[in-house]
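Example 3.2
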Amino acid sequence: MQIQDLLKNRRIELGLTMKEVANAVGVSEATVSRWESGEIANMKRSRIYSLSKILKISPIQIMQSDDRAIMPKILDKDFISQHEYKIVDAYRSKPDMQQAVDTLLGVQREQNLHIVRKAARNGKYEVFTLTDEEYNQMKAADEALEDAPDYI
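Structure, written as tokens:
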């Protein structure tokens, strides 16, 4: 299926108008029409991301250029099937369920590390590596500071 067909068919399946898609993506209705007719083949990444959200499909599906499925390499020689790709995509789209799936499959989650740059008073930056827990604590503290009233 060509990209223009995918976009139009998916929009119609979801009962969306071109105007609704245009508003969600931040483009004109005419641009959506040109995407669906194949007049515009290239899109900005931000548009692809917004379009994938409103059409509830993967950005990879939008970026592919023909019937061939894009399947990422796993171990230099092995590819994942389209079914496996859908499972990975579903897993990523449901972060609240990931721990339960990991437990069910007996998979131990690797600890994510976040590299954070912090401005110092001397104008230079310090670089920190934080675990998920430390990063979430830092985000919560930053959000609390943003919500706090300003005092002079």
